[in-house]
Design a protein that fits this description.
heterodimer, A: 396 residues, alpha+beta, MetI-like fold, two-stranded antiparallel sheet, globular, B: 385 residues, mainly alpha, 66% helix
């Protein structure tokens, strides 16, 4: 602690050493530090003794060992002959997958519900309120169980699959989509998409500059839609529709072909989206309410239509309030994806848990968890902070 | 006397007239709130359609077609599934909840000894209620009883082993009992620990600050499950060889540490909102650090962040359900465990059990959030302008 410098000339009152805040501060810190060192020393001593007794060699060599377990849902090649390291990597990819699609869906549902909570329509308002109050007050694990055991596992067997549009099927083994089979020249479609995005970027810049200079507006939104949607479509038609579908087909016991989305993934994805959406809705509502009433009145006074005032005046300001808590909800969703272990979706915690049980390398596995989740947290936080800084109020 | 008295003074009041129908009464309410314009009308119709789609089937399922009593799965399964219900039947299997209710509440706690749980629960309610009602005096004594005396009494009562009480080891505990024990201990530990961590994080002593920052950020950065795994796998490694460590206690340590990191951040927010003048004023009065905090800063800071604190409590209450993953049977775990009971397994059993568990969790969490709103209004001493 900083002590104020005595400005009185001459004899400063003699303070006993014990009462000198600076001395005290140092003494406390030394005590804390010593205690911490002693604790760590004691823990390390115990741990090495325990590990020796259990015959576990510490270190990350076990990652090279043969895993010996199978993972049903994997984005990359994996078999029981693969290594533990690869198993953890598969788990990591699965965590990322569910987190990313979950975040997107939760944001969409959350914004819809949040705007609904602000609606002057009494009925819509109440429906959204009920949604929020129900999902905020039950544990996420229960929502996951609800989807998994309550809804998805009582769906009919593959033989009696529910037909969905576009040749998709839903049954107790999951959701089946047709697979896209891209033919010759399909890469041109991708090129069209990239070109569309690049052109849009330039058109936006040009339109913004022109509006700043002359005040003339340019229909940027529709031009963007035309560019981003039109160019790939043009490429698609020019190359002669190089797309066919592989539809899932019923065989004796199961559906063959197509893309299968497993019920574990579906349950986790739906539960995380619905659960987090309730929190995002409250954040959105608070954000919009946080924009002072004068702003919308001023927008009206300028003659903006209500949709314009929402888009140009309210939302940009509300985003400033919304983004920081939204970031922490995204992080929560990512962390809650670890609940996957309860229904057997092979995410990082589940594959890590299996590894831990098989090898006994508790410290190493937990260390990997810590590093990965902290990394994800810092990554998401960094990204959102960058966005937040862009949206932040620029004061003169 | 006046001769030309042409002025008119009304001597009696005209009776009040009813406000025009256009801005009063149910019709005007409907017009304003449901059918204000075309878009509104469309949304209202969509909303009604949604309600019609969801509510009647749910009522049909939960009440009309539900089975309230029964001895085993046959009442809740269709003929094809080996039961007595007609084909295509779908209804809640409340008979399952009825049959397993005791398990959902107490787990495998011995039946003869359940009076001890009741007594503990009664003591808890008896101590908590006066603490929650603002008008009741002697809050200090009450808090000491609830947070110092009650844990000891409750522990002795529940686990037994002294005073001639039969020992009941914690693996036998389960259901709502475990949920409430975890939540109570989590709240009772995380609140003071969170305050200490928050003060530590704002301390000017670099070592203390560093320790607190590292602790808080590490715990907040990882999911609770990894903390629970850590508590259940790594704690035994950290302790001297041969120390056995109760499983419930491990979960308690995990939950409490996790919650205190979140609590610390909430309270730090409150501490930051207190103007510097308050700190300086307390310093000028010559108060010591702890007196300054206890008498001046914390009462204001905590009042500011009551919503955040209660949100943390609610989060903690919901998070207790995760102990199922490390092999303990709290309310949700007990429900989940009983799906597998061959006597009751049917397509309707899981969803009924989950709806029941969800309702219990919802009641507690909703109650907490309403109480926090009430407290917030009461303590609002008018800093708002």
């Amino acid at each position: 602690m900083a002590t104020p410098q005595s400005t009185v000339e001459g004899a400063a009152p003699r303070v006993p050493l014990f009462y000198d805040p600076r001395v005290r501060g140092i003494a406390y810190q030394v005590l804390v530090f010593a205690g911490l060192i002693a604790l760590i020393y004691w823990i390390i001593g115990n741990t090495t003794a325990n590990l020796q007794r259990a015959n576990i060699a510490s270190g990350f060599d076990f990652l090279q060992g043969r895993a010996g377990f199978d993972i049903g849902d994997s984005l990359v090649e994996f078999s029981s002959d693969s290594t533990y390291g690869r198993a953890l990597f598969v788990g990591f990819l699965n965590t990322l997958r569910v987190a990313i699609v979950g975040i997107i869906t939760a944001t969409i549902i959350g914004f819809i519900i949040g705007i609904g909570r602000l609606s002057k329509n009494w009925l819509i308002n109440r429906i959204c309120l009920v949604y929020v109050e129900v999902f905020r007050n039950i544990p996420p694990l229960l929502v996951i169980f609800f989807w998994y055991f309550g809804v998805l596992s009582v769906l009919p067997l593959p033989r009696e699959s529910i037909d969905l549009p576009f040749g998709s099927y839903l049954n107790s083994r999951g959701l089946y989509f047709p697979r896209f089979l891209w033919g010759e020249g399909a890469w041109l479609v991708l090129v069209g998409l990239v070109l569309g995005i690049v052109f849009t970027f330039f058109v936006r810049r040009w339109a913004h500059r022109r509006q700043m200079a002359t005040g003339e507006q340019f229909p940027v939104f529709w031009t963007s839609v035309a560019l981003i949607g039109g160019l790939p479509l043009l490429a698609f038609v020019v190359t002669g529709l190089p797309l066919s579908f592989e539809f899932p087909e019923l065989s004796t016991f199961n559906l063959r072909g197509g893309i299968q989305v497993r019920p574990e993934f579906l349950a986790l994805y739906l539960a995380l989206s619905f659960y987090t959406a309730a929190f995002i809705a409250e954040i959105v509502r608070a954000g919009v309410l946080g924009v002072s009433h004068g702003q919308s009145e001023a927008a009206q006074a300028l003659g903006l239509r209500s949709s314009q005032s929402m888009r140009l005046v309210i939302i940009p300001q509300a985003l400033r309030i919304i983004i920081p808590p939204l970031t922490s909800q995204y992080l929560n969703l990512t962390k809650n994806s670890s609940l996957a272990v309860a229904i057997g979706y092979p995410d990082l915690v589940a594959t890590g848990g299996t590894t831990l049980n098989q090898t006994g390398q508790a410290i190493e596995v937990v260390a990997i968890w810590l590093v990965v989740y902290l990394g994800l947290s810092l990554g998401t936080a960094g990204l959102m902070n960058w966005y937040n800084a862009r949206m932040a109020l620029v004061e003169r | 006397m006046q001769e030309h008295d042409l002025s008119f003074v009304r001597a009696e009041m005209v009776a009040n007239q009813a406000p025009p129908v256009s801005d009063h009464g149910p019709v005007s309410w409907l017009r304003k709130n449901l059918f204000a314009n075309v878009t509104d009308t469309i949304f209202t119709i969509l909303g009604i359609a949604l309600i019609v789609m969801i509510v009647p089937p749910v009522i049909q399922w939960a009440f009309i077609d539900a089975q309230w009593t029964g001895a085993d799965r046959s009442v809740c399964a269709t003929v094809v599934q080996g039961g007595t219900q007609p084909e295509g039947w779908s209804g809640a299997c409340w008979a399952f909840v009825d049959a397993k209710f005791q398990q959902f509440m107490f787990g495998r706690y011995p039946v003869d000894e359940r009076w001890r749980v009741y007594l503990t629960g009664f003591l808890f309610v008896a101590l908590l209620t006066p603490l929650l009602i603002p008008g009741v005096p002697r809050k200090g004594l009450n808090a000491i009883l609830l947070f110092v005396v009650f844990p000891i009494v409750g522990f002795v009562l529940l686990s037994g082993g002294v005073f001639g009480l039969r020992p009941v080891p914690t693996p036998l505990w389960g259901g709502l009992l475990v949920t409430l024990v975890l939540a109570y201990v989590g709240i009772a530990v995380s609140f003071p620990l969170g305050i200490l961590l928050a003060l530590g994080r704002r301390s000017q002593m670099p070592v203390v600050k560093l320790v607190c920052v590292v602790f808080i950020e590490t715990i907040r950065g990882v999911p609770l499950i990894t903390i629970l795994f850590m508590a259940s796998v790594m704690l035994p490694l950290f302790l001297p060889p041969g120390t056995s460590f109760d499983k419930l206690l491990r979960a308690l340590v995990g939950v409490a540490l996790f919650a205190s990191a979140y609590m610390a951040e909430v309270i730090r927010g409150g501490l930051q909102a207190i103007p510097k003048g308050q700190y300086e004023g307390a310093d000028a009065l010559g108060l010591s650090f702890w007196k300054k905090m206890n008498l001046v800063v914390l009462p204001q800071a905590i009042k500011l962040v009551i919503p955040g604190i209660v949100n943390t409590f609610i989060g903690l209450f919901k998070d207790t359900s995760l102990v199922y993953i490390i092999g303990m049977f709290d309310l949700l775990g007990a429900v989940r465990q009983n799906f597998a009971d061959a006597n009751w397994a049917s397509p309707q059993t899981p969803i009924t059990g989950l709806v029941f568990a969800g309702f219990v969790f919802w009641l507690f969490c909703f109650g907490m959030s309403r109480y926090s709103i009430f407290m917030e209004r009461r303590l609002d001493t008018g800093h708002k302008r």
